[in-house]
């Protein structure tokens, strides 16, 4: 309970800023520039006419305007579509600008940088291709699995201030989640039923991956849009053995269906012969006919007809 309270106190809450239009402030900055130039020029004209005091006053005004101009220009910020800037004032988080446009903010605010010194945070959907890794499934079989994760940043404050590098954080957490989820399911199930597997229950596994990963990256202000298995196979050292087992299971299942169908067809043939009174069978002849039909229907090769010519 105490750990949760400490974590909640340290968590940074995102604040959305609505700054002023940059066009208006750019116009004001240009006015300051022209006013400063005009003051200096007017001071020079007055100095030639002997007005030294007025020259000093106008020179001071021109210098003040010249100092204010670059300061105002530092407050102009451009934000593109699906981008955001995070602003700090003397090391304190003041807010984030997520709206695209041309704005003016307090010139003493600086932009918090992302990885490699980037001044803007991308809000676009990003793709992380987790390369295949070797893990054990629920049955202990070594398998190779790879996952593609689509994610985006929804909380810029958490992304920049709660973790060191949100991209690496998502990558490391995805590795951990893949191993955890892979151990919950077998690679495949040999019999039909409600048991889920990595190969047959792709949607359930994807939902589990997404939910598990979302719970772990919430602290970084990241939303998981989708998580899908992109590669799934047995590890090379057991792949041949597992392929033989799959083939054996397929052969057994096919034989079972063939036998079920043959028994049904033999039963139907016997009943039809009785209904139409084509022939009368005693127990021995019925058993012989059933045996012959089963051999024909269940055999791997076509039956060779034999004509009984005995009188």
Task: Describe the 3D structure.
With 311 residues, the protein is α+β, with helices and mostly antiparallel strands. The protein contains 8 helices and 10 strands. The strands form 3 sheets. Strands 3, 4, 6 and 7 form a 4-stranded antiparallel beta sheet that branches. A hairpin with a 5-residue loop joins strand 8 (126-136) and strand 9. Helix 2 (22-48) runs antiparallel to helix 3 and helix 5 (166-182) packs across helix 6 (202-217). The longest helix is centred in the last third of the chain and has 41 residues, at 236-276. The radius of gyration is 39 Å and the shape is rod-shaped. Mean pLDDT is 80; it is low at 1-9.
Feature tags:
single chain, 4-stranded antiparallel β-sheet, 50% helix, 311 residues, alpha+beta
